[in-house]
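Before a colleague's protein record goes any further, I have to sign it off. My question to you is simply how this chain folds and whether the tokens agree. I do not need a full report, just your reasoning and any doubts. This is what I was given:
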Amino acid sequence: MAKVKTTFFCQNCGSQFSKWQGQCTTCKQWNTIVEEVVQKSEKSDWKSSTSSPAKRVSKPLKIAEIDSTEESRWNTLNQEFNRVLGGGLVPGSLTLLGGEPGIGKSTLLLQIALKLPFKTLYVSGEESQKQIKMRAERINPQNTTCLVLTETNTQNIFRQIETVEPDIVVIDSIQTLHSDFIESSAGSISQIKECTAELIKFAKETATPVILIGHITKDGTIAGPKILEHMVDTVLQFEGDRNHVFRILRAHKNRFGSTNELGIYEMLGSGLREVNNPSEILISEKDDELSGHAIAATLEGMRPLMIEVQALVSTAVYGTPQRSATGFNAKRLNMLLAVLEKRAGFRLGAKDVFLNITGGITVDDPAIDLAVVASILSSNEDVSIPQDYCFAAEVGLSGEIRPVQRVEQRIFEAEKLGFSTIFISKFNKLSLKNTKIKIQLIAKIEDLVGWLV
């Protein structure tokens, strides 16, 4: 009997050690090193040895000789998913989708698999085929191109892949898979690394896109070693509150596109609905004009969004006034309040200030500064801002209204949604003609006060 070989791995970063120690010298975390069995058998290719072709040998090429044509992409028939990926699935790419339990990761990928015109193999290690069938009947019961396999052994999965030859493979989830070449349990660091490496080899050699679902830890990071995120081509995060119906898809890493794009979905009984106009969920509908509300024109990647900023200014009950911000940087809120005190003469030092970005999203675009200031002034003076006004400018420490990038795209979005006036910086260079929306140019924060108060 072969001697069992063990080694020690850090559960946080995946570093390997020859013996146990209390602190990982790589990521400096304590009590994260565990012992795992890594006894290996003779390892073969992902294909069976009889059908494995001769291995291709890479040759060095001059930069001028390398083909620079753009990667072809496959349309997933899901506009939000395509946008976040950068235009669609790239052949041979490996995509990792993470998110909290119950947020809708499996529903999203099953919905995409059922609508794809390609032959898709959906591999589940968490649910039975009957459970997946029940969910599929709510989404697209007439599909004939999606095959469902319930298996956790990677060697058995590759045998089925050789048989059915799918165009796209979906794995739900990577933490449930295990390889015969590693004797540790499924979900361990060595198993996750080995299974992912086998899937990468398969994807690159056959130009088959592979989509993985990954669990996350209580800290919100992808479970398993950090090297897992380095191995894959794209890392997507599916976010949202299970108590609300809206979900947000973001890209944390994308080798084939931007990481600034945003996809928004609404969870319904029949699956996830694509929200093509995010302003419908980010701007609340109200009959009466209320104080403390302002609309900001912001950008997420290439996508313009109109979001609602809500502020509440009230007399402090306790000695120290509260400063609370939801979806906005609290330090930046304190800076804007200081600018209002110094440059505009508003005494807010003895008042509580609460700020909220509606829709449950977090915004770090400096272009919403003007809308934040406008909502605070509106609440403080109890004066409502007309519902057809919107704002897009950054506020400087000296009270100047600074220009923001791609302001014309923001103006077009505001005009399309029916706003009558947009406030921007006087220093923005515009080349617009024949616009129906009124563009109000302001240079200092005192100009805004004159318009609103």
Confidence is low (pLDDT under 50) at residues 49-55.
